[in-house]
């Protein structure tokens, strides 16, 4: 009995096309995962930051502190490189790491959470006011001539806070707390 011609491509061609499509999809998925896990790779370019009130960002203290900050921070054993900040970049601001960046801002206005009953923490002789947020916390240096905020994701270890404390202690003199 002769085969009927239906006009459809041969069965082998359909199976081959399906196998190639699946192989291509798997290859793209694997390549995406491998590229995402490469250390030091920027995450979507410069980091965009929203402006916050920082009336002292152009102070001599910030001009001294910012260049003294380390080029890299250690967080949970991972080395985080300084990250480019998108223009217009806020003055006296530095960021490290991706995708969840650690951000330092110098010259901030006094945090409203700083009261006489606020629970402060001392790290390397620097007094910090921790303010918890959703997914990240901001730690404010409150015993220097300028207020400094260090925002760290909840997944970060204590290394960044320690390294920044060491730099603050070495570059800026302590002053009495201002409530």
Automatic annotation (TrEMBL):
Protein name: DUF3515 domain-containing protein
Regions that span the bilayer: 12-34
Keywords: Membrane, Transmembrane, Transmembrane helix
One Pfam match: DUF3515
């Amino acid at each position: 009995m002769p085969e009927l011609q239906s006009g459809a491509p041969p069965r082998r061609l359909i199976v081959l096309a399906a196998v190639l499509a699946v192989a291509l999809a798997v290859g793209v998925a694997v390549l995406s995962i491998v590229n995402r896990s490469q250390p030091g790779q920027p995450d979507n370019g410069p980091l965009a930051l929203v402006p916050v009130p920082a009336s002292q960002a152009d102070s001599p203290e910030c001009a001294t502190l910012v260049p003294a900050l380390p080029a890299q921070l250690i967080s949970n054993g991972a080395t985080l490189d300084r990250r480019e900040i998108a223009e217009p970049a806020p003055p006296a601001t530095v960021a490290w790491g991706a995708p969840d960046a650690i951000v330092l801002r110098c010259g901030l206005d006094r945090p409203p959470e700083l009261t006489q009953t606020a629970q402060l923490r001392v790290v390397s002789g620097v007094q910090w006011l921790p303010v918890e947020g959703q997914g990240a916390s901001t730690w404010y240096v409150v015993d220097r001539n300028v207020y400094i905020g260090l925002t760290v994701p909840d997944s970060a270890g204590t290394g960044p806070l320690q390294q920044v404390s060491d730099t603050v202690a070495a570059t800026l003199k302590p002053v009495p707390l201002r409530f």
